[in-house]
Specification:
This protein is of the alpha/beta class and about 350 residues long. It contains eleven helices and ten strands. This is Aryl-alcohol dehydrogenase-like predicted oxidoreductase.
Length: about 350
């Protein structure tokens, strides 16, 4: 794999991030420790170095598995990202949320499970609508100054909150968010309304979760006896079926799998993007790695964009309409000038 910089930093990460939510079976699904080790080995052997986890994945077991694995590896080779916010125990009222107390407690617990002295990238997992953003940024900056965290990032948070946070951090000389993790795929393009333009403005790398739409974009739900997708499902509905069929058509034309097309689309959108791709089997990882041998043509991108297009709402659509009007006026004035 090639490497790219994560946001406005000098940190080099591989082209896609390995999602580890499925490492462990405490939630009734996932990969056992031996299989998880094998997946991380295959990822590293392919040049991958970016691991994504969280304090709550598989009730903490995911971090424990990664910690045991890293003890057998060169820790500095890997860029380890984890998260805090969601409740990981019932000990006290502050065992969840974005507040400083939970942040500090969660980081200490993650460091123990991961068996490491530092976390490379710490994400705020989800905005709680309670904690002031300056409390969050100051806490993250303190952890970075202490050497327990190297970089700050944020996930599943409104664009205006992230923008306020990075502006405040720049003013105060605190560490800024360098990455933004949100759901983004051909069947979930709403981040294009506010979140992605904001990330581009601040030079943040977008790290999409569910870039395959929870498996919908692989086409597996359209094959065999499973028939058509249920209309009431959030990701499995008539619209996602229509989009997936276009993905599958292009995949057939190129002689690749549908997942390759869907993954590469996220990486060819004109902004810094490092998709998070999970795996609970070696075969899944090996198939996803092939996506990076693919380059979609302008014609393929146009077909995918048209099939998955969403209304931007106000003011996005208004800006588009205004641009059309201004171009029309500009053309008119050009003609007037030429005649005169």
């Amino acid at each position: 794999m090639n490497y790219k910089l994560l946001g406005r930093s000098g940190l080099k990460v591989s082209e896609f991030c390995l999602g580890t939510m499925g490492f462990g079976t405490d939630n009734g699904w996932g990969a056992e420790k031996a299989d998880s080790f094998a997946i991380m080995d295959a990822y590293a052997n392919a040049g991958g170095n970016f691991l994504d986890t969280a304090n709550v994945y598989q009730k903490g077991t995911t971090e424990k598995i990664i910690g045991e694995y890293l003890k057998t590896q060169d820790r500095d080779y890997f860029v380890l990202a984890t998260k805090y916010t969601l409740k990981d125990n019932q000990t006290n009222p502050n065992a969840s949320g974005n507040n400083r107390k939970n942040m500090m407690r969660s980081v200490e617990e993650s460091l123990k499970r991961l068996q490491t002295d530092f976390i490379d990238v710490l994400y705020l997992h989800i905005w709680d609508n309670i904690t002031p953003i300056d409390e969050v940024l100051r806490g993250l900056d303190d952890l970075i100054r202490q050497g327990k965290v190297n970089y700050a990032a944020i996930s599943d948070t409104p664009a205006w909150v992230v923008a306020k946070g990075n502006t405040l951090a720049e003013l105060m000389g605190w560490s800024q968010f360098i990455a933004l993790q949100v759901e983004y795929s051909l069947i979930q393009r709403t981040p294009e309304r506010e979140l992605i333009p904001m990330a581009k403005h601040f030079g943040m790398t977008v790290t999409p979760w569910a870039p395959l739409g929870g498996g919908a974009l692989t086409g597996k739900y359209l094959r065999g006896d499973k028939g058509r997708i249920k209309a009431e499902s959030v990701r499995l509905n008539a619209n996602s079926e229509r989009i997936t069929r276009v993905v599958m058509q292009i995949a057939d034309e190129l002689g690749v799998s549908a997942s390759h097309v869907a993954l590469k689309w996220t990486m060819q959108q004109g902004f810094s993007c490092t998709p998070i791709v999970g795996a609970t089997k070696i075969s899944q990882l090996e198939d996803n790695l092939k996506a990076f041998e693919l380059t979609l043509s302008a014609e393929h991108l146009q077909r995918l964009d048209e099939a998955s297009a969403i209304p931007l709402g106000f003011p996005g659509d208004f800006f588009r309409e205004d641009a059309v009007r201004m171009n029309s006026f500009g053309g008119f004035y050009d003609r007037v000038e030429k005649r005169s």
